[in-house]
Design goal:
The structure is a homodimer. Chain A is of the alpha+beta class. The first copy, chain A, has three helices and eight strands. The first copy, chain A, has a single domain, classed as CheC-like (Chemotaxis protein chec). In chain A, α2 crosses α3. Chain A is globular. The two termini of chain A are 22 Å apart. At the A-B interface, β3, β4, α3, β5 and β6 of A face β3, β4, α3, β5 and β6 of B. β6 of chain A pairs antiparallel with β5 of chain B, so a sheet runs across the interface.
């Protein structure tokens, strides 16, 4: 992944939180992702494909996941139920959807999202893909964004 | 998801195991996936998008994951290291890649894969997407295939 491809995803995180959730985010240091860096128990994952292949992971503390869902649904949600799963999936969808609009030269479309829960789960990219990882501090609590993006994806069966 | 869309994925699982891994698979009963059905500690996930949006989850016991990697790399692998992650990602990629070739009317491409590990992890689809879940028994041990596929995906920003 090249560093310039991360910027549309960073803007998408900021925009999704500020416009949809009225929550300010402060970005931490961008770094190449190391093996097994997941630290929070809720992850929204969504694929991007077209003239590139990508995967976006938005990794949230339980507190952030609950506050995202509570804000989206305008009701207090206190446990990781199906409403929270849907809200985190929708958050991943919004981030990937906005980023793809900025990366229009790759003619991307988004997959269905999945949401992974489990205190000890780890999400890894293939070793060749060098994802970029970015921590954010938000008014709701901490989160990590992890993005793998491979522009030169040539598909043998395309 | 409509039932007819699952068949290319079922054939892709059988073909990947029989041709690449020389391992026979026996399919169990196809069912609509219920919430929180993940049961094994290693999951390969990969998105599909184009004129449809999908996500494929291949959920493996540790034994199956180790034997898949050992067979692909022609060496004994005894723990869930980066080689196993790469092998499970490649397995997900092969399954999605073969299925998309059979679903050519949807003009699909595949995302980057991710591999999730963790004894207690759960992968959920958005509640509206009705994924299909299929257990397989293989000569290596048990696995589950879970596929969400939404052909009528109309993207507002396309």
């Amino acid at each position: 992944m090249q560093a310039e491809h991360i910027n549309p995803f960073l803007r998408a995180v900021s925009n999704a939180f500020s416009t949809m959730l009225d929550c300010e985010v402060r970005r931490g240091e961008i770094k190449l992702s190391e093996s097994k860096t997941q630290c929070y128990p809720v992850s929204g994952v969504i694929g991007l494909s077209g003239k590139a292949a990508g995967m976006v992971v938005i990794n949230l503390s339980e507190e952030v996941a609950l506050r995202v869902a509570s804000t989206m649904l305008m009701m207090e949600i206190a446990e990781l139920d199906d409403d929270v799963i849907d809200a985190v999936g929708e958050l991943a969808n919004m981030i990937a959807g906005q980023a793809k609009a900025e990366l229009e030269e790759y003619d991307l479309s988004v997959s269905l999202p999945n949401v992974i829960t489990g205190a000890a789960h780890t999400i890894q990219f293939p070793s060749a893909s060098r994802p970029i990882s970015v921590p954010f501090d938000t008014d709701f609590g901490p989160l990590n964004l992890e993005v793998g993006f491979e522009p030169a994806c040539v598909e043998a069966n395309a």
